[in-house]
Amino acid sequence: MKGFEVLTTEQLKKIFANARASAIEEFLSPINTVMEKYEINTPLRIAHFLAQVGHESGELRYREELASGEAYDTGRLAERLGNTPEDDDDGRLYKGRGLIQLTGHDNYELYGRYVGIDLLKTPQVVATRTDLCADVAGWFWFRSSLNALADQDGIQRITRRINGGLNGLKDRKRILVLAKSIIV
Hints:
Layout: H1 9-15, H2 21-37, H3 43-56, H4 75-81, H5 90-93, H6 105-115, H7 125-128, H8 130-143, H9 146-151, H10 155-163, H11 169-183
Helix pairs in contact: 2-8, 3-11
């Protein structure tokens, strides 16, 4: 594939077999836009991006982390995310949202500046606006230099950058193999 080739409805349905048809229709165009915008434009990059998005969003079922976010209120993780101990609601306010979950005060502030929206006042908009829900995934991907790791077929390193560990690696690998068989 040279340059960017649009992902089709049929391809996305096969890759995210557990997604609702309405979610496929809702997210197909935003995902294609994001992949073009953030240079996720080779079969390997696309396959890795979809594997991570597929796992992180439960194959487009979740726009927001299921947990309350309380775990991000204290300790090293809170500090790393820019959540302040004085404001014990930061974890809940800035919990994971988007197809690759934006998490933490500092990340909401950075992405908000990038898109020109005060996300510190309205963090939920990342989950409620489909365009932002998809775009934040591409923004994080690009900002974290994940195209280079995708080019190396480095699923473990990509997963660590996104998740901080290897949570869900088996599922991410399953989706990656499926995506590769359809796209590559």
